[in-house]
Amino acid sequence: MGLAEVSGILWKERELLELLLFKLEEEQLVLASGRTRWLAHATREVEFVMDQIRSTEVLRAAEVDAVATELEIEPGPSLNALAAAAPEPWGELLRGHRDAFLTLTAEIQALADANRDLLSSGARALRETLLGLDTPLDTYTARGKNTATSAGGSRAHFVDEAL
């Protein structure tokens, strides 16, 4: 147990966050293309990576608590606090991990927000399309007559015309 193990776990987390970013970009490409056939697969892959990140975070928390005890600091320290307490070169390495996490999480948040917007606009367009399906369409007969008017008085009337 020690800083080397914590650093190894942080590298794994960084790789998982980069994979999550990639999967979110894939999801965005599927959404933007309008080909929703693969959307469920893309979403499942995002969820799978998220589960892996959660598992790794639990492992990291346990290792960080063990290192915090060795460094005689409070359990559950932030990465910044751990870097401040760690001897060099570990402090610098931990600060590098922290900076990378900040950058990756900002990119992930922006991409997730964009995907959410695409999903919302797609759902809104679908809802509007479905609402428009119950209105009758005017078509024409082989003789060129409008079917709405040739169907035996089914055209719309004003109230005073119907009387």
Outline the secondary-structure elements.
Layout: H1 3-33, H2 39-70, H3 79-85, H4 90-132, H5 147-150, H6 159-162
What does it look like?
- This protein is mainly α.
- The protein is built from six helices and no strands.
- The model has no long low-confidence stretch (mean pLDDT 84).
- The chain is rod-shaped and about 90 Å long.
- The N and C termini lie far apart (91 Å).
- Helix 1 runs parallel beside helix 4 (90-132).
Shape: rod-shaped
Q: What distance lies between the first and last C-alpha atoms, to the nearest angstrom? A: 91 Å
The main pleated sheet reads as: none
> What is the H-and-E element order?
HHHHHH
Strand content: under 5%
Could you name the ranges where pLDDT drops below 50 across 5 or more consecutive residues?
none
- Count the beta strands: 0
Mean pLDDT: 84
Total helical segments: 6
> Helices and strands: which structural class?
mainly alpha
Helical coverage, percent range: over 70%
**Assembly state:** single chain
Q: What's the Cα radius of gyration?
A: 29 Å
Question: Can you describe this structure in just a few lines?
Answer:
With 163 residues, the protein is an all-alpha fold. The protein has six helices and no strands. The longest helix has 43 residues, at 90-132.
